[in-house]
UniProtKB/TrEMBL annotation:
Presence of the UniProt keyword DNA damage in the record: no
Organism of provenance: Undibacter mobilis
Domain ABC transporter, residue spans: 1-216
Keywords attached to this entry: ATP-binding, Nucleotide-binding, Transport
InterPro entries documented for this protein: AAA+_ATPase, ABC_transporter-like_ATP-bd, ABC_transporter-like_CS, ABC_transporter_ATP-bind, P-loop_NTPase
Family per record: Belongs to the ABC transporter superfamily.
Record keyword Methyltransferase present: no
Official protein name in the record: ABC transporter ATP-binding protein
Domain of life: Bacteria
SMART domains per record: AAA
Length: 216
């Protein structure tokens, strides 16, 4: 991937090859700037690779993929809607009836400790709670693929730990393919089936090291 801005161009990923199997929970770790976000943006179709292809479920990604869940580092919630309304909005946007997803939304919010906050507005929630709400929002329509870009990056250690447990519980209750970008090797090892380590070597091909994990 080459980013071009005026006369300046930046190489982000070169000759990178990675296959993620269906149902796998893969973590991608690597230092800032090695291309993790670029990779996720290409998988989701937000960014087009300047060369090479990205394939999701045997289809080459040409446009933003609508059928997935995405969680970013800073949760963007509609401040004028309650937590439950924010979650259900995701369903509404896809043209599904909200009523059919109400119970599921409450179930997921309960699973991440937000049941008592479902009718509150985002500004009444802590950073960790907002992030949990955004994870539930990403999961509500049962996407086959969930992409997370440093979802816990802005949280303190204790909250991160709780989020990690929440995420693990959500994944255990309904397995899906998850690509989880993190700075934390600990988190990656604890959560995933496989850890992909990206190490940038300027001007050269990234090294990708795969480490298969055995789930407890
Ligand atoms: P990471 O997520 O691992 O921190 P990124 O994918 O954000 O890495 O960035 C990879 C490289 O691409 C970095 O050198 C970064 O500066 C560059 N880059 C990322 N986004 C842009 C952009 N929109 N324009 C120019 N360069 C970018
Ligand atoms: P992260 O490590 O989560 O990717 P960054 O600070 O690297 O966070 O990037 C934040 C945003 O800025 C991303 O959307 C990325 O694409 C963009 N970005 C990163 N580097 C550059 C750059 N050199 N020029 C323009 N945009 C960039």
């Amino acid at each position: 991937m080459t980013y071009n801005r005026g006369a300046k161009s930046t190489q982000a990923l070169q000759e990178t090859s990675l296959t993620i199997r269906k149902g796998e929970f893969v973590s991608i770790v690597g230092p800032s700037g090695c291309g993790k976000s670029t990779l996720l943006k290409m998988v989701s179709g937000l960014l087009r690779p300047t060369s090479g292809t990205i394939t999701v479920d045997q289809k080459v990604v040409q446009a933003p993929v609508t059928d997935l869940g995405i969680v970013f580092q800073s949760p963007v919630l509609l401040e004028w809607r309650t937590v439950l309304q924010n979650v259900l909005m995701q369903v509404e946007l896809r043209g599904y009836p909200k009523s059919a997803y109400h119970d599921r939304a409450v179930e997921l919010l309960t699973a991440v400790g937000l049941r008592d906050f479902k009718d509150q507005y985002p500004h009444e929630l802590s950073g960790g709670m907002r992030q949990r709400a955004s994870i539930v929002r990403a999961l509500i329509h049962d996407p086959p693929l969930l992409l997370m870009d440093e979802p816990f990056g802005a949280l303190d250690a204790l909250t991160r730990e709780q989020m990690r447990i929440d995420l693990e519980n959500l994944w255990m209750s309904r397995p899906m393919t998850v690509v989880f970008v993190t700075h934390s090797l600990d988190e990656a090892v604890l959560l995933s089936d496989r850890v992909v380590v990206m190490s940038p070597r300027p001007g050269r091909v990234e090294q990708i090291i795969n480490v298969d994990m055995e789930r407890p």
